[in-house]
Design goal:
Pfam families: YhhN. The chain is mainly α. It is built from 8 helices and no strands.
């Protein structure tokens, strides 16, 4: 299959598999979950490898591939129900977000060399993200600390929340690269924050009905948009936005 046709068909394939995975999870068809969930990130990993020659920077390719591969590991850890692998899953996704931070930081450094201005709306969004972080931790941590089984997770969850918020801020500060790449990356990062927020509220407070639907739909969309953003940024010259 030609690469252009593959990229056009990828969102459709991801949509179908995500729908099947959500349905399987909601109806407790565990075997089907084990089959479909890893397929989602495997498709994105395969796409990055397929387009590896398009990357002008080996570091960008490496960081993106690392982020997706670590996310795949996190998916596998978290989907296994026979044993509690939450901590390895959390660690995998933490490292994935660190990789995304490095991926976005490369563009931020390039922007700073070009002396791009930072607009007021960017400061506002940074403030909103930091405020959201404080409120979320203020709501979550008391519930985590109140349970003797989850109390040891207070510090790991706090670190994770800080890192994913940083990833979102870095996505915001990429402004100055290709316009479409910037927008897709920022939207993807925000969807990732939404997905992990719903996951945390569902896991520690159990207040989100049909949580799998919201977690997986926003998660897959986030991973796809960030991947697409990185690919556009490597194949289309930067323009001012």
């Amino acid at each position: 299959m030609e690469t252009k046709k593959w990229m056009k068909g990828l969102p459709v394939i991801l949509f179908i598999i995500t729908g099947v995975e959500i349905w399987a999870d909601l109806t407790d068809k565990i075997g089907l979950v084990y089959l479909t969930k890893p397929m989602l990130l495997l498709l994105l990993v395969s796409t990055v490898i397929l387009y590896r020659k398009a990357f002008v920077s080996k570091a960008a390719f490496t960081f993106l591939l690392a982020a997706l591969t670590l996310s795949l590991g996190g998916d596998i850890f978290l989907m296994i129900r026979e044993t509690d692998l939450f901590v390895p899953g959390l660690a995998s996704f933490l490292l994935a977000h660190v990789s995304y931070c490095f991926l976005f930081w490369k563009d931020i450094r390039r922007n700073s060399e070009g002396k791009r201005d930072v607009y007021t709306w960017q400061y506002i969004i940074v403030f909103l993200l930091l405020s959201f972080l404080v409120i979320l931790l203020g709501v979550l941590l008391p519930h985590i600390a109140a349970n003797s089984e989850t109390k040891p997770l207070v510090i790991p969850v706090t670190i994770y929340a800080i890192v994913i918020t940083t990833m979102g801020i870095f996505a915001l500060l990429r402004r100055g690269i290709n316009v479409r790449s910037f927008r897709l990356g920022l939207i993807g990062a925000l969807f990732f924050i939404v997905s992990d927020t719903v996951l945390a509220l569902s896991l520690f407070m159990d207040i989100i009905p049909y949580s799998t639907l919201w977690i997986m739909s926003t998660y897959v969309l986030a991973q796809y948009l960030i991947t697409r953003s990185a690919l556009i940024n490597t194949t289309i010259p930067a323009t001012s936005n």
